[in-house]
Amino acid sequence: MTRKILSILISAVMVFALAAPTLVVAEYIPIAPLVGSSGATIDMSDSAPPAIGTGWTFANNVYTILDGANVTVIGDNQLPTASLRRIWIEDDAVANVTLNGVNIELTQHSPIDLSYGANLTLTLATGSINTLIAVSSAAGIRAPGNTALTINGTGTLNAQGGTNSAGIGGNLQNSGGNIVIYSGTIIARAISGAGIGGGNNGGSGGNITINGGNITTHGGLGAGIGGGGGGSYCGMGNARRK
After folding, report:
1. Distances 116 to 78, 137, 196 between C-alpha atoms, Å
2. Which residues face 120 on adjacent strands?
3. Rounded Cα gap, residues 88 and 111, in angstroms
4. Domain ranges within the chain, ordered by starting residue
5. Run means of pLDDT, 10 residues per run, the chain, 242 residues
6. What is the pairing mode between strands 86-89 and 62-65?
7. Which residues touch 125 (CB under 8 Å, ≥6 apart)?
8. What residues have CB less than 8 Å from 241, skipping those under 6 apart?
9. How far apart are alpha carbons 190 and 42 in whole angstroms?
């Protein structure tokens, strides 16, 4: 009888051991942190950037690019939530900006805006896709008649202008600036301005030189490359491909 009870107890222990749950340790996969804006890097996804970096300052949703700057821009101003963060090249600044996977969408301003006398070299990083969209009365890249814009690199740039503005160039009644394209895949669209050149209602094309690259343009009321259309005067400017 004692031997039978012992046998039953041993069997119960074995059953419990077999039924006991197995502890599974999940593999730890770290979450990539936000790069953030610091040094010579501007992260458009950074919702709380510092007030100053190397070659730039930040205030009131505007990254101001300073004279002599050489900065890289990454990120999406629609993340983590939609914002009004944008880029402004200060008066008379000579600056270099590299776009490396950037998305900037705005309703009232140009994603990249060249102020009076600014001279910007814009490099499209290899393999990058960069999108600049203005919805209302602003160019995707505002480069009016008193500015200079040079685009190079092997990445892709999608620039879309809002109402009455160029994809790359002037806003309403603004002529395009001195725009030179050396390389890259560039798609420039406008609703009622030029793809590359002037804004609607009198904006001439400015001086546009295409030395290379894969360029696709679509003008609304204006030219694909040249004048903005509309108004009593719409000069084509000087557009040439070498």
Report:
1. 28, 18, 19
2. 95, 149
3. 8
4. 38-241
5. 45 40 39 71 96 97 98 96 96 98 94 97 98 92 95 97 90 88 95 86 82 90 78 47 56
6. parallel
7. 72, 98, 99, 100, 101, 153, 155
8. 209, 210, 211
9. 27
